[in-house]
Amino acid sequence: MDLATTSIFLSLIFFVSATCLFKDAVGVNSFNDYQFLTMFGGKGSENGQLIAPHSLDIDKEGNVYVTDTGNNRIQKYDSNGKFLLKWGEEGSEDGQFIKLHDIAVDPSGEYVYTLELKNHRVQKFTSDGKFLLKWGFEDTGGKGAERTPHQVSIDSFGYVYLTDKNSHQIIKFDENGKFIKILGTRGSEAGQFYRPHGIVFDAANNMYITDMRNSRVQVLDKDFNLVTQWGSYGNGSGKFSLTFPGIDIDEKTHLVFVVDKIATNVQIFDQTGKFISKFGSKGTGDGQFKRPEDIAIDPKGRIFVCDTGNSRIQIFSKNNS
Q1: Which residues pair with 75 in a beta bridge?
Q2: CA end-to-end span of the chain
């Protein structure tokens, strides 16, 4: 091989190696696995508009329920963000809200549960907003601390679970508000919490909890035994800030999605806690967030993010290109 041929050969090797490294870098650092589709809401008080929405959930038909916290009401949209109906106003009577913080639809899609910070209660409605019942937390053994539940979730048996952020516990009720038991204590061991917030159940009734001040996700089975846990404090992939309130599971892919309010992104994991990907950044543009609070996956696998600071809901999908 003469000098010129050798030079060309070495150049080709360098080019191929550099290209492979570039592709690896793109795969690791750019995170283009998920794409922005559309958004709905926007700041205001007209039908379909939102002010500081804190939470959302999606029923089995793909309808989207949003806590329009700044307007003290619930709004219901179809799967494309078209306004369908609303209910609620400011107050403490049945069907009224103050500091509306969370919402959950039961697995049947028939009932909607809401949680208020100011009125310290759960309210239960039909899917079209008819008030059914309510309950508070007076007889739940608060151990001297005022109950401050932040999120609500329903397992496949219809039991209602609340994450009590200040008491570092999970409170369990039946579907009619009868208190069942307390789960967990303050701490960093398995089954202990330090300011738990988000909670969701998978098909096997394992509960996934964002244990915020422990900077981890805990997965506990129906008997409250530890299945797995992952996470640590930080800004990198697989790490969390001290405020990562929202979590949901795509039951088809078994991927777990966690929204980080401070890092202003969404991280994706498999059910063992292996980091898969992430998307989002701070801002007001498409695919950017300002203090995002919650996340939900619809039956089509699309990701709905409650972009609280921007008063809107953004929709994303897996990029198959």
Answers
A1: 66, 86
A2: 42
Q: For residues 115 and 102, is the Cβ–Cβ distance under 8 A?
A: yes
Pure H helices in 195-286 = none
Sequence-distant (≥ 6) Cβ neighbours of residue 76 within 8 angstroms: 63, 64, 65, 66, 83, 84, 85, 86, 127, 128, 129
Q: Which residue has the higher pLDDT, 5 or 56?
A: 56
- CA-to-CA distance for 244 and 246, rounded, in angstroms? 6
pTM: 0.89
Judge contact between 195 and 212, C-beta under 8 A. Answer: yes
Closest CA to 137 of 157, 115, 158: 115
Residues 6+ apart with CB under 8 A from 285: none
Distances (CA, A) of 171 to 18, 83, 100, 118, 218: 55, 33, 18, 18, 16
Residue in 58, 85, 53 with CA at minimum distance from that of residue 72: 53
Residue type, 317: S
The two tokens of residue 195 are 């300011």
At 13-67, the pLDDT tens digits run 333 333 333 333 333 334 689 999 999 999 999 999 999 999 999 999 999 999 9
Mean pLDDT of 226-242: 96
- Got the DSSP string for 61-81? T--EEEEEGGGTEEEEE-TTS
Whether the CB-CB separation of 233 and 240 falls below 8 Å is answered with yes
* Tokens (6 digits) for 38: 């559309």
Distance of CA 8 to the CA centre of its chain: 53
DSSP at 271: T
Two tokens at 296?
């939900």
Q: How far apart are CA 122 and CA 110, in angstroms?
A: 16
Q: Quick one: which H or E segment has residue 256?
A: strand 255-260
- Reduced to 3 states (helix: H, G, I; strand: E, B; else coil), residue 304 is strand
